[in-house]
Design brief:
There is one protein chain. Helix content is about 45%, strand content about 10%. The chain has 17 helices and 11 strands. The chain has a 3-stranded antiparallel sheet. Strands 4-6-5 form a 3-stranded antiparallel sheet. The longest helix has about 35 residues. The radius of gyration is 25 Å and the shape is globular. The N terminus and C terminus are likely disordered.
Length: about 425
């Protein structure tokens, strides 16, 4: 009953971890929401969906996919509704046409130009990808990782889909494919040689630049007094490199927790958007010596990590990598992908504008009095506005819509 009482104190993390299963613990615990970071996740989510649609179209013959085929893929994209309506929202990215009484979807010329630019960046970043993959292998206990597990996070790290062909054969002095289990699912990438220059974490690199001892940074507001106190206490002990051998550390000890925090920090530092799914990270529990209840450990360090359950997907972000909702340092691939996002937004604004004009025309035909809004709110420039719904397609903000409908229905009901 006390969990339902709003006046009672929240249960401690130690209580949750010892008395509740991980799924129940997830549902009860989440960090105080950060609007900026939630906005970054929302914007990134729409980019991910359209990027997957882009990849589906590119893999289809003649690079034109039937909309019916996209509809079948909607479930795997965790989307509801009609695929035709979705792609029409982004006319700058997707071109929809009718052929033999069937709708098809292909990429626009501007979108194809970005695809070519992205491929060019990937070609130039071969050495960067190789170093990133080597770092992952060097942090693992046996210096090798399962290919299927890497595939789950390959786009997080920016690896091309054909990284096994593009990277591994071109760097034989760094990697090799092995299959000690003999099964197709047991294929692994193994590190051939240890590179001491790569065994330097982002925390250690930053410390070298500032000529200080390596330690974590905290970006919480000053009002989070207790969280700051816990952070300083945790940060007071020596930093343990994620590239060090963990086999001498005792599971559950403070030293092991210190290394685990450093390892997750380093993993997120290697990703494009400095974020990852907690569930997918948990798949590497054995390889990276991660705790069984990784989510509980991350929640104990709100100054370093931000945990969100947006879209019912538990995601961890590296706080220090963001200022507001924007990444501080952007990978060249992220710069290209940002152009994709801008193209999405441009098309979305055009869709909303046309949708708005169509609805105005319908209202006029019905003889309903419409008043011109005084001012368009700047918040409509944000990509998060595209799913607000309503007859006006998200053109006005909430307050404007209230005033608009108040006048509309008042005049309509007048004798």
């Amino acid at each position: 009953m006390y969990l339902r009482n709003k006046k009672c104190l929240k249960p401690s993390i130690d209580f949750l971890s010892s008395h509740l299963d991980p799924i129940r613990c997830f549902s009860l615990w989440s960090m105080k929401k950060d609007p900026d970071l939630e906005s970054a996740l929302s914007r990134n989510r729409r980019w991910i969906v359209n990027n997957q649609i882009k990849n589906i179209i590119l893999q289809y013959p003649n690079q034109a996919a039937p909309v019916k085929f996209l509809q079948k893929k909607f479930k795997t994209l965790d989307l509801q509704g009609k695929a035709l309506n979705w792609v029409k929202k982004y006319p700058c990215c997707f071109e929809v046409y009718l052929k033999n009484d069937e709708y098809y979807c292909k990429l626009t010329k501007r979108m194809m130009s970005l695809v070519e630019e992205e491929e060019s960046v990937k070609d130039m970043q071969g050495a960067v990808f190789a170093g990133r993959l080597a770092k992952l292998l060097m942090m693992s206990t046996n210096q090798r990782l399962n290919v299927m597990k890497i595939n789950e996070l390959k786009r997080n790290f920016g690896f091309p889909d054909d990284y096994l062909i593009r990277l591994v054969p071109n760097y034989p002095h760094m990697f090799r494919l092995v299959n000690y289990g003999g099964r197709r699912t047991s294929m692994e990438i193994e590190l051939v040689s240890w590179d001491a220059h790569l065994a330097i974490s982002a925390v250690e690199m930053n410390a070298q630049k500032q000529d200080t001892k390596p330690c974590f940074s905290c970006t919480l507001p000053p009002t989070w007094v207790k969280s700051w106190e816990r952070f300083h206490e945790f940060n007071s002990s020596p930093y343990i490199s994620p590239y060090s051998d963990p086999r001498g550390l005792v599971e559950g000890s403070k030293e092991m927790e210190k290394r685990t925090v450093g390892l997750v920090h380093e993993l997120l530092s290697l990703t494009l958007w400095k974020k990852a799914s907690i569930t997918k990270l948990g798949h590497f529990r054995r390889e990276f010596c991660l705790p069984e209840k990784l989510n509980v450990m991350l929640l104990k360090h709100p100054g370093i990590f931000y945990v969100s359950n947006k879209y019912q997907i538990y995601t961890v972000l590296l706080r220090e990598a963001y200022t507001g909702s924007e990444l501080i340092h952007k990978d060249p691939l992220v710069v290209v992908k940002d152009k994709f996002g801008e193209l999405m937004q441009e098309g979305l604004h055009e869709y909303n504008r046309r949708h708005h004009l169509m609805n105005l025309e319908k209202k006029k035909k019905k003889g309903m009095l419409l008043l011109k809004p005084e001012k368009k709110d700047q918040s409509t420039d944000r990509i998060e506005q595209d799913d607000q719904g309503g007859d006006l397609g998200g053109i006005f903000d909430a307050e404007e819509r209230k005033r608009f409908y108040k006048v509309l229905f008042a005049d309509n009901n007048a004798p």
